[in-house]
Each structure stands twice: as C-alpha cells, then as structure tokens.
Amino acid sequence: MGCAPYQPSLKTFRTFAAMNDVLGQAIYDYHHKLGKHKLWIHNHYGPKEEMPVATYFRTEDDMPDLEWLALNECRGKILDVGAAAGCHALLLQERNFDVTAMDISPLAVQVMSARGVIKTLPADIYRYQHEQFDTILLLMNGIGLAGTVDGLKLLLNHFKLLLKPGGQIICDSSDIAYLYDEIPFPEDRYYGEISYQYQYKGQKTDWFNWLYADEEIMHRTAAECGYQMEVLVEDEYGQYLARLTM
Question: Can you provide one Gene Ontology molecular function annotated for this UniProt record (predicted)?
Fold first, then answer.
C-alpha cells in the first residue's frame, strides 16, 4: 500500500487562525518538557493516528533524503512557510542563509525563537505581502495548506506577490490514491482533498481541509497559474519534490 503520507503540520494558516492553538501547544509542551501527552489526528478514511511531536524537532540526520535535497536547492533570501519548531530554518541558518521562519501559531513562533531561529514571523501567509523572497519553502507537504485544488490556485497566485524575479517555490506533495484500495474514491471532490481534525490534551480543532496533490494535478494547476514545474525527485510511494518558477 505504500507508506503513509506526511500528516499536515502547523502549516494550515487560514484554517488554524480561527482555532485554538492545539498544535502550537503540543510543540510548546514538548520543547519545555511539560508532560508526555499524545497528539492525535482524526480523518474520514480510517482510525485516528498519533502524530509524533518529535517530528517537528528532528535534526538533519533524521530527515528523509527528499528534505535534504530541498534544503540543498534553496537559494538567496528564503521564506520557510509553516516552520513549526524551526528545524529547517535552523539548518538553513547554519549554512548562512537569510531565512525567515513563518507560522501562524504564536506558541510555535515562541519555540522557534527559543531554539535559536533569528528571524521569525507570526503571520497568516494569505495576508502577508510585505517582502519578496528568492525561495519560498514548504516542506512536510506544506503546500497542502491550500486545502483544495481551487485553493491551490489561490495560494500559487498569492505567492507571485512574494517572489522576487527569478524566484522559486520548493515544495513536496504525494499521490494518496493507495488510500482508496479498500474504500471507494470520492465522487464529489478530488481524491487528494482530505479532512482532518487534531486533538491534544482534550482540546480539538475544527475539521479542516488538506490537499495531497499528485504530480499531474500539481503540474496542471501550476501551469494554469503561470508557473513551470520541475520534479526534482520522486519515490516509489508517490511522494515527490518539485520546483515551481515563473
């Protein structure tokens, strides 16, 4: 069936803005060693799953090859969208990049700063348009914050305001068709549009949409928005890393 896709992280900006900061609290508690509570994620296609909070704190040695390549492809002034605990921003800092780590979660931003991220930005990506960057980075399927295919068009068009001439978007996603080996494909939406709900210490978020875009959908949507797409790497599980340029 293949490995499970990356779960959505602290990267859903517009959706999480109206929620309790459940994920931020989980990251904050983990960093400050405030108990060993589990972070759960509910979905509509199977039982709930535990999301290990340690994932947001992993070091370079713990990262998959796809993320190593993504970091190696970064250039110039970088915006790390949905930086969570700042693991990617910290590595880019070590390489002397000018990197800004953005997240809508105030608690996550506190943790990033405490861990040594120099430039942090508590902001909603859809409302932010104050600077331009050479690279916009979205890892752990961060592009999924678009929620739907239509939302992906909206997000890619917004990124045009944030990219310098010659700039690039580095993102990963995956084809999750294997989830439907035993259940029927949805008839009312693209099969990569998934609904999730987080739960931590008795608190739950509202249900929110997350997008897993297969290569064909990503390529077609990017082209409609005026981007060229290059697949940098893909694996046998349908996960891939892409570069989008104007």
Answer: methyltransferase activity
pLDDT of 14:
39
What's the rounded Cα separation, in Å, for the pair 246 and 244? 7
Residue partners of 176: CB distance under 8 A and separation at least 6? 5, 191, 192, 194, 212, 238
Radius of gyration for the chain, computed over Cα atoms and rounded to the nearest angstrom: 17
Strands 119-122 and 133-138: unpaired
pLDDT in tens, 105-138: 999 999 999 999 999 999 999 999 999 999 999 9
Helix, coil or strand: residue 9: coil
- Structure letter (DSSP) for residue 163: E
Enumerate the domain spans of the chain. Answer: 13-245
pLDDT of residue 44: 87
Closest CA to 45 of 213, 217, 210: 210
| Fold exhibited by the domain 13-245 | Rossmann fold (3.40.50)
pTM score:
0.91
